[in-house]
Amino acid sequence: MKKLAQVLFLIIFGFLLSSPLVIAQEEFDFDKAYKDYVYTQQIYKNAHSEYLLAKSQYKGAKTLTSQTQAQQKTAIMLQARDDVVITYLRALRMRIAESSGVDEIVKQSLFSRIDNEIAWYETHKSQIPSAGTLSDLEVDSEVAADRFENTYILAYETLSTAPMGKINNLYIKMDSLLQEIKTKIESIRQKGDHDTSDTERWVLETENKLSRSYNKQLTAQSNIDILQTGDFKGSAKTYYERVVTNLQEANQYLREANSYLQEILREIKTE
Question: Which of 6, 26, 54, 186 is deepest in the core (most CB within 10 A)?
Fold first, then answer.
């Protein structure tokens, strides 16, 4: 009986209740997926509260009835926990699906891996009711905990890839605009009726900022690649935070490049 009481102290994934996920309310599909995630979180919290109560009653009474009740509530809680992971993964999938600038091959790779994770948790959830004892439920919980090590890394890789695509998309658009502007300036210079030295200086400054932004993007991508391989020491969150920092810096350089482009356009209008 002491062993049965101990198994009730199951692993609870508190990090699922606090994992970062950016909300994009204007995107219906992602919004619906995120709302499903929030809803399953509440169901899990309720199931967890009932599980704690059943655990407490079983520890106090040690009766067959309290044991049965504890087993039922534990199974419900574990299924609810799987649902939280499943809906979170679906929200991540929609986040990538609706992210601009992400390479299609990268998207399809993430879709495949996320779908495999979802399928695994759905299968795991469906098998929980077949557990005959609290010990069996303990094993089910530990299996899910082991699996979540991979899920956890995939989640951070996905969260890193979405903003990476957005920054890269902005970079490409700005670089394309700069090339058009350079062509226009060259045309003005060849006519010889306007001094283009100021605009050419701004072009050089813009190129430097874009180059620095690109280098930061490369650094961010290297950290994403490390997340993808799973071959690293420490926490996946650490690499995710590095990506966020890299992309913030890359975005700042893009903002500065944009201000230079605005200055160039003003100069061109006066020429």
Answer: 54
Tell me the whole-structure pTM to 2 decimals.
0.81
Q: How many CB atoms lie under 10 A from the CB of residue 3?
A: 9
Structure tokens at 5: 């009481």
Binned at pLDDT 50, 70 and 90, residue 13 comes out as very low
The position carrying tokens 């045309």 is: 187
Q: Encode burial over 181-215: b for 16+ CB neighbours within 10 A, e otherwise.
A: bbebbeebbeeeeeebeebbebbebbeebbebbbe
Burial 105-141 (b: 16+ CB within 10 A, else e): eebeebeebbeebbebbeebbeebeebeebebbbebb
Structure tokens at 32: 């619906």
What is the model's pLDDT at position 119?
98
The count of C-alpha atoms lying within 13 angstroms of the C-alpha of 108, restricted to the half-sphere facing its C-beta, is 3
Q: The tokens 């993808």 sit on which residue?
A: 228
For residue 20, the tally of other CB atoms under 10 A from its CB is 10
**What span, in angstroms and rounded, lies between the C-alpha atoms of 121 and 116?**
9
Per-residue DSSP letters for 160-222? HHHHHHHHHHHHHHHHHHHHHHHHHHHHHHHHTSS--HHHHHHHHHHHHHHHHHHHHHHHHHH
Alpha-carbon span 77 to 75, nearest angstrom: 5
What residues contact 183, with CB distance under 8 A and at least 6 apart?
Answer: none
Which is nearest to 79 in space by CA: 117, 36, 129?
129
Reported residue count of the chain is: 271
